[in-house]
Amino acid sequence: MNLKTEEILQALPGKGSTWPSLAAAAAPKAPTPAAPRPQSVEQKSAEAIRNNKDIIVKLNDPDTIKEYQDKAPVAILAKVNSALATSRHPQIQTCKALAAKQLRSGDICVSFASDV
Q1: Which residues of 25-55 are buried (b: 16+ CB within 10 A; e: fewer)?
Q2: Cβ of 102: how many Cβ atoms within 10 Å?
Q3: Beta-bridge partner residues of 53
Q4: Could you tell me the pTM of the whole model?
Q5: Spatial distance between the Cα atoms of 24 and 60, rounded to a whole number of angstroms
Q6: Angle ∠(79,81,66) on CA atoms, nearest 5
Q7: CA 34 → CA 31, 37, 99, 114, distances in Å?
Q8: What one-character-per-residue DSSP string does 23-37 give?
Q9: Which of 69, 84, 105, 114: disulfide with 51, CB 3.0–4.6 Å?
Q10: Where are the alpha helices (DSSP H) in 3-88?
Q11: What is the C-alpha separation between 88 and 17, in angstroms, rounded?
């Protein structure tokens, strides 16, 4: 017999072994903590995306919801940024949306940079 077969045969339980004694002997060892991996460029950019601030604009009018259903996200974004630029409030005029899309609920999700 080769060495592997002998090891396997020795590991098999004997006639007097009980199930609880076998289970206790084969208890799992505590996992060792994994070493932290360096972040890739994709992970850093994903982290930057998560730091964005999202604002949900509730649309209650069914006609308004239908109006935005036909628009591409870029068109919605242009409309949002146009509305921000024409605001009377000077701080709102400096804000710029990074992305916008219509959700399944019909509401609009607008994403801003985290430093705004």
Answers
A1: eeeeeeeeeeeeeeeeeeeeeeeeeeeeeee
A2: 20
A3: 112
A4: 0.53
A5: 61
A6: 25
A7: 9, 9, 36, 31
A8: HHHTPPPPPPPPPPP
A9: 114
A10: 3-11, 19-25, 41-50, 62-69, 73-85
A11: 83
Q: Measured between alpha carbons, how far is residue 33 from residues 30, 36, 37 in Å?
A: 9, 9, 12
Q: Is the dihedral of CA 97, 98, 101, 103 positive or negative?
A: negative
For residue 12, give both structure tokens: 């098999």
Q: Residue 108 and residue 104: Cα distance in Å, rounded?
A: 9
Q: Are 43 and 74 in contact (CB under 8 A)?
A: no
Q: How many residues does the chain have?
A: 116
pLDDT, tens only, 3-24: 666 666 666 666 666 666 656 6
Rounded CA-CA distance 7/15 in Å is 18
